[in-house]
């Protein structure tokens, strides 16, 4: 968005210096989308942030902080650090950074509104930290797949005031939110692990009602997760009649149950030998055939798309 400001050019430097809400900090940034940097300057030092990106097609995108360099103010008014240098020239500030093996002098433009810089830097911090938490949970709980894409939804849920907090305030606030996410996830994982263990360890002597109640705690909508899959496969192999009965009693979960077991040869054999439940066994066989043909259908669709693309290219050229 462009703002038309009626003001004499002589006053522009004053405006740039005082437009930011925090007079102890001045934010600058490069105008290049390829080499995006933020610089946070104070009277004694500066921090240069080399920015990167998080991106999930059709889901969302955001910033990442690839590197941060702390610079000290020099006697000549420049700032110098291990990987960056900010120099003053007649027409403004220039950033010389060795991040990415580049020594180009990039122009630094004043960020007129500090909230904009805070928003981008806070976005990068949150997405980076969420990504590390996501990896930590995936490593600790391999039976449950944690998807990074939810980070974008959580960021979008924050208010404008929260997104534009001072960086240090935001870090403390965001760390508390991330701890809540971690604590909630760990509590759920402990429950899923406990229930799955109970089912698999007691599958041969467990009664049907207890089994049904226990399986309901694992939530079939997460059928692609390991807990539900392991429990359902154990039931299909050790208690195949219970498996078919569950498929009858839980029609909303039937597809998930079948999807988890159609590739399990031991389960297929045990289910085939169960007396009765002919309707469910027929439904299971249909699911198995669909699973068998699925790769062929996918390949066929890809070939068809390529054929259309070639035909269109031929007609055009």
What report would you give on this structure?
- Residues 1-19 form the signal peptide.
- The chain crosses the membrane at residues 293-316.
- Keywords: Membrane, Signal, Transmembrane, Transmembrane helix.
- The structure is a single chain.
- With 317 residues, this protein is of the alpha+beta class.
- The protein folds into 3 domains: 9-112; 123-194, no CATH class; 207-313, no CATH class.
- Helix content is 53%, strand content 18%.
- The chain has 11 helices and 8 strands.
- The protein has helices spanning 12-18, 114-140, 150-157, 160-163, 167-202, 208-216, 226-238, 240-249, 254-261, 265-272, 278-316, and strands at 26-30, 37-41, 45-56, 60-73, 79-80, 84-89, 92-97, 105-110.
- The protein has an 8-stranded antiparallel β-barrel.
- A hairpin with a 5-residue loop joins strand 4 and strand 5.
- Helix 7 crosses helix 8.
- The longest helix is centred in the last third of the chain and has 39 residues, at 278-316.
- 23% of the residues are buried.
- Residues 1-22, 293-304 and 312-317 have low confidence and may be disordered.
Low-confidence stretches at least 5 residues in length (pLDDT < 50)?
1-22, 293-304, 312-317
Q: State the secondary-structure class.
A: alpha+beta
In DSSP terms, counting alpha (H) and pi (I) runs of 4 or more, how many helices? 11
Q: How many DSSP-defined strands?
A: 8
List the secondary-structure elements in sequence, H or E.
Answer: HEEEEEEEEHHHHHHHHHH
Task: Tell me the count of domains.
Answer: 3
Distance between the termini: 41 Å
Q: How many strands, what sense, and barrel or not for the largest sheet?
A: 8 strands, antiparallel, barrel
Rg on CA atoms, Å:
29 Å
Instruction: Enumerate the strands of the largest sheet in spatial order, edge to edge or round the barrel.
Output: 1-2-3-4-5-6-7-8
* Helical residues, percent: 40-55%
Q: What characteristic shape results from the CA principal axes?
A: elongated
- Rounded mean pLDDT score: 84
Strand content: 15-25%
């Amino acid at each position: 968005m462009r703002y038309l400001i009626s003001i004499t050019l002589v006053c522009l430097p004053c405006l740039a210096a005082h437009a930011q809400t925090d007079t102890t900090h001045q934010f600058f940034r490069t105008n290049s989308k390829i080499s995006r940097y933020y610089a946070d300057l104070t009277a004694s030092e500066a921090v240069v942030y080399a920015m990167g990106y998080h991106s999930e097609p059709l889901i969302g995108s955001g910033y990442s902080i690839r590197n941060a360099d702390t610079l000290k103010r020099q006697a000549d008014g420049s700032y110098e650090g291990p990987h960056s240098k900010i120099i003053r020239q007649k027409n403004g500030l220039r950033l010389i950074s060795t991040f990415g093996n580049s020594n180009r002098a990039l122009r630094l433009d004043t960020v007129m509104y500090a909230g904009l810089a805070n928003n981008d830097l806070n976005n990068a911090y949150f997405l980076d930290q969420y990504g590390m938490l996501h990896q930590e949970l995936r490593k600790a709980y391999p039976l449950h797949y944690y998807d990074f894409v939810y980070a974008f939804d959580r960021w979008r849920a924050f208010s404008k005031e929260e997104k534009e907090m001072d960086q240090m305030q935001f870090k403390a606030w965001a760390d508390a939110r991330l701890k809540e996410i971690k604590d909630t996830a760990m509590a759920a994982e402990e429950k899923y692990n406990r229930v799955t263990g109970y089912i698999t360890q007691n599958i041969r002597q467990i009664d049907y009602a207890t089994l049904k109640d226990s399986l309901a705690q694992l939530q079939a909508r997460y059928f692609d997760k390991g807990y539900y899959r392991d429990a359902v496969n154990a039931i299909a192999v050790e208690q195949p009649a219970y498996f078919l009965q569950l498929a009858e009693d839980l029609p909303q979960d039937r597809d998930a149950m079948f999807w988890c077991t159609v590739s399990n040869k031991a389960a297929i054999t045990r289910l085939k030998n169960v007396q009765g439940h002919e309707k469910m066994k027929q439904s299971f066989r249909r699911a198995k055939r669909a699973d068998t043909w699925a790769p062929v259908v996918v390949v066929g669709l890809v070939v068809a798309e390529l054929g259309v693309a070639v035909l269109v290219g031929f007609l055009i050229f």
